Amino acid sequence: MVDSPREVVGAVLKHMGASYNTNDIDSQVAGGRNAVQQNLALLQKQVKVFDSVHYLKAFGVGDAWVAVGWSSDIIPAAKRMNGVAVIVPRSGASLWADLWAIPAASKLETDRIGGRVRGPSPLVHQWIDFCLQPQRALPFKQEVVPGASPSALESAPINGSKGLGKNKPKLDTNLIAGVPPPEILGKCEFLEPLSDTTLSDYRWLMESMQKPRHGSVQGVQDFVRLVVQKISAKVPVQGGMK
Question: pTM for the whole thing?
Answer without folding.
Answer: 0.71
